[in-house]
Specification:
- The structure is a homodimer.
- With about 600 residues, chain A is an alpha+beta fold.
- Chain A contains 18 helices and 11 strands.
- Chains A and B meet through helix 8, helix 9, helix 10, helix 11 and helix 12 of A and helix 8, helix 9, helix 10, helix 11 and helix 12 of B.
């Protein structure tokens, strides 16, 4: 079985030393009941729950996968892997589902800077399991932001209590990235409801046996809706309709005509049900105004995409811990710098520099990404809780700019890290028993779903940078330079970060200039631009961590400084490569005729 | 089902335009019966066989995996996936097993420059299937190089005819990279045979139902053998003993006491049986002299590791073809540079530059790696068939230097390419139905087995470069510079290659200098040094392909030049990054105390 110990020290380091979350909480009326003592209890409880309850189901859930059958009425029905239901009961009973949800609807109101670690621990120990409540919370947040008061009253308490789950039904077979192409229809009834008809794919948690009801949020088109993404509306389509006379206590009634058509067989996260959902005149209720469906979905994207970034961190942490343990135990060959275990016939892997290279790549990724995720979470919290308009505006700008990086860069580097950690195991890494190959398979999805990483690149370069001629980015660079200028510490990260910021500014101006002429350059440069920006963000985060660690006693802080050294030597040089690749533009990509890519 | 069309045009381009293989064959007595007409027939037949017979079994073999049971006598018995046995019969009856084997023992004597494509097509269409005959040929080659005449007479014809298979039994549970730690014992009997006792793991094709016998080549230690790798000997341990009175017609007799203890469940290549093999006083016969076991194995490593490189090419080709087809078909979003399919609601993916970026990364890898593999295959052929001592010495030096790059760089880039091609499919790429996730899982093994890629780095930098102070590398650089100097063509690849060669020379001298002081630097720099060297090799190969394409008519050649442009813009810049990472050395890796890596 995997080993896992939640990195509580690192979490505390970020909350206190780096971001001084308690001061922020103290200064804020909605948060001043929260302090580090409370947070410690929460994190430690979650650490035990995830380790003791979710982790033991991680591999068995992968091996067993989800079951699919038809119930007596002919509806498709998904059963989760053995143990998931009991674990979910425990999770629900513990009140964990609504940890970060608003108290107005029964949530515990913890800020994102705390609930992000709930996500991390859950995704580390059982990504497939964690997706069920994660999607429910996404649906909840979407309702909170866009639904009517009546709708919120009807659904949110149940969702935040974990009694009902939720889904996001966006993709159709022919419409993924391009949601404007969806065909699902919503025909109005006289009572104000709609009949929803169509077929959705890739619905995470589209059905399961964990909750008595599932609230599907479905993108569909009303009659005479304009073509493309401007004609999309959003609908609530519960698996079971709510009894009309029971709105107060939310009893479920008739089965709605939404049914699972199939469950996908996937590379990983096999314990998570990825469903084809067929809607056959299913009863639905519009959320918000007509044609605002995409906008409503996008209101929750920042949170959802941070969650995907957390998956990248989570799999990295799990993979690292297991690979480091293996490297400590496994004896193989002698160290190049002299025998380390003279009593044994070989030295432990950890004495070989190449093994350390792979482990430190992962370790660095886990820690710097965690710091970056908290930076973004803090902006989300400021935007949500602050009453300072200027602070809110800046926070929103940072979130807009950094969300695609959070999603794509953290998941890309997370996949890379799990592959590195698998490699530490040699041949054993390829064998299912060791558990590493599952981590790699599970990690892979984060690069794909919730907007494939190429799309995140386009979002960053096309929408967030190009649209305002880089203003939002340049403002962020100013923040970075100001931080470095104010740093007391003397460490190579200062110079490295400044240089990275200058380089990115220069690259951005070149790209902005080129794009006006070469229309395909946004698309051709986007992914490498995102990676270059990601490494700058990482440098900034290391600068923050160095600033918080220097002149402090103890091996924990000393190691933070060493990891920053490693980052400068062995990670940051990648930024230059991505800059060059971005700068090369799209010309040599577009030089080929279409026929070149056609099958022979 | 996967689509696949063997890249015959590219294979012919390499054989004729780039390497002028026919001239080499003509000039050589052992090869002058081979011409391009014959080779065309061979390649086309193989292309049909692999496409029509092996490809349809690729996914079903992955889904079904191998069966494991116990026979009446209690021996573990592996059954291959449905259809493998019939396919193997066809393959064997076609005389394909011994295509590249020596005619002295019934082989068809085709040079490596041709049989490498047999490997490619088979690995593309069914990597799991291909491993069975591939391992048999490895065992055959090992016997050819090191066994006695009697042993060769007894086994080689059967192996090359495909009647008997073969395995390599090296790894033990505690001894992978470090084979000096093996514990399997070989105790001499009075009749000259040995009793082999021990347990081997990761034995590819350790048992199966494709052939009537399997010839295991087993590393073991004789009594009183010196400790470590110097005490290892090699033994022939047939699954069924050969009837003593039937040496002429090789009838199999008594079952030997070697039995499969378990079959591993793996991330991929699930149709290939990876076995635990238990030897319980199994009868074995020593190959070559006592204590030369590792040396005998290493004699075939160059061929085996080229085969792994071919796997990297093969999975890339398969992934590319499927991703390109998808990108042509799938309509999603509009092109940034204007609507391309006004009659449709969206443009095909292939119009988006980011999709081309991923496809061209794969396409470039497939073509330049194929060229590089042929460069190495040509050196192997020169070393084997030439009678010019100077040419042979140079060829052997090139093979020694480039084998670790062939194995590791081609498999690393192959995995990367399959991941890119999976990404082209978006969410569909994660679903088993699309077949892309299998390619990724299958591709991953090549980075691990046959000497994990980290070990290849050590082989290159530690053994091949450092040991002779870089002489072998510098001689290769001289060849590259001479080639560029003689190039008639006018293309950016000339300058790019020269610069890459200069940079690598400079890096090599720095590393050689550092290593004497910093012992861990070999280990800490090896992988990045290997990648830097790999990109130089790729630049050289592109120079060769450009030289062979310029001033020629036709779109095929024009596209080769365009792909070289793409390489310069979007691939070669990676070399600089790996140089910087290599140059950073091992200091910041080794700065951490051991405790840092211990579980919390």
């Amino acid at each position: 079985m995997h080993i896992y110990n939640a990195p509580l020290s690192d979490m505390r380091f970020l909350l206190t030393d780096v971001f001084d979350a308690p001061s922020f909480w103290q200064a804020n009326d909605s948060l001043n009941h929260i302090d580090m003592d409370t947070v410690d209890i929460v994190l430690e409880s979650l650490s035990k729950f995830t380790k003791n309850v979710l982790l033991p189901l991680n591999r068995s859930g992968d091996e067993e996968g989800v079951g699919f059958s038809h119930d007596e009425e002919g509806y498709g029905a998904v059963s989760t892997p053995t143990g998931f239901k009991q674990a979910y009961e425990q999770y629900k009973e513990g009140g964990w589902v609504g940890l970060g949800a608003t108290p107005e609807y029964g949530g515990q109101g913890f800020p994102k800077m705390v609930s992000m670690f709930q996500e991390e621990m859950m995704f580390s120990t059982n990504q497939a399991f964690a997706l069920y409540p994660n999607l429910a919370l996404g649906a909840g947040l979407c309702l909170l932001k866009s639904a009517s008061e009546t709708q919120k009253d009807m659904y949110l308490e149940k969702i935040y209590a974990g009694e009902w789950a939720g889904t996001m039904c966006l993709t159709e077979a022919h419409a993924g990235t391009d949601l404007g192409l969806i065909k699902t229809k919503a025909v109005p009834n006289e009572d104000g409801s709609y009949n929803i008809t169509g077929s959705k794919i890739f619905v995470t948690g589209g059905d399961h046996d964990l909750t008595e009801n599932i609230i599907h949020l479905v993108l569909a088109k009303t009659p005479n809706a304009p073509a493309g993404s401007k004609g999309i509306s959003l609908f609530i389509v519960p698996k079971y309709l709510i009894k009309e006379d029971s709105y107060g206590d939310h009893q479920i009634g008739t089965r709605n005509t939404a049914s699972v058509g199939a469950v996908e067989h996937k590379m990983g996260v096999k314990g998570s049900a990825t469903c084809v959902l067929n809607f056959d005149k299913a009863k639905g209720w519009m959320v918000g105004e007509e044609f605002t469906g995409l906008a409503s979905m996008f209101l929750v994207m920042n949170y959802e995409r941070l969650a995907i970034g957390m998956q990248g961190i989570a799999v990295t942490e799990l993979a690292y811990q297991n690979a480091a343990a293996y490297a400590n135990d496994r004896l193989q060959s002698r160290s190049d710098s002299g025998i380390k275990n003279p009593d044994k016939s070989a030295d432990a892997l950890i004495h070989h520099a190449d093994i350390r290279r792979m482990l430190l790549n992962a370790k660095s990724h886990a820690e710097v990404s965690r710091c970056f995720a908290m930076y973004v979470a803090k902006q989300l919290d400021i935007a949500k809780y602050s009453d300072d308009k200027q602070l809110i505006a800046t926070a929103n700008a940072r979130v807009a700019l950094l969300t695609p990086i959070t999603k794509a860069f953290l998941s890309d580097k997370g996949f890379e890290a799990t592959v590195d950690c698998q490699q530490v195991f040699g041949g054993h890494g390829y064998i299912c028993d060791a558990g590493m190959e599952q981590i790699v398979r599970d990690a892979r999805i984060a690069q794909i779903y919730e907007g494939a990483n190429g799309i995140q690149g386009l979002d960053l370069l096309g929408r967030k940078v190009a649209k305002d001629s880089g203003a939002m980015l340049f403002d962020f660079l100013t923040e970075i330079r100001r931080f470095i200028a104010n740093m007391q510490a003397d460490h190579g990260i200062k110079q490295a970060t400044l240089k990275a910021a200058d380089n990115l500014e220069c690259l951005t101006k070149i790209l902005l200039n080129n794009m006006s002429e070469r229309k395909d350059d946004v698309n051709g440069c986007a992914v490498n631009y995102l990676h270059a920006t990601g490494y700058l963000c990482f440098a900034y985060m290391y600068a923050m961590m160095v600033a918080a660690s220097q002149h402090k006693e103890g091996v924990f802080y000393a190691n933070k400084l060493k990891l920053a050294d490693y980052f400068i030597d062995h990670i940051l040089p990648r930024m230059q490569m991505h800059m060059e690749l971005a700068q090369a533009g799209s010309q040599s990509m577009m030089a080929f005729d279409l026929a070149y890519f056609e099958p022979a």
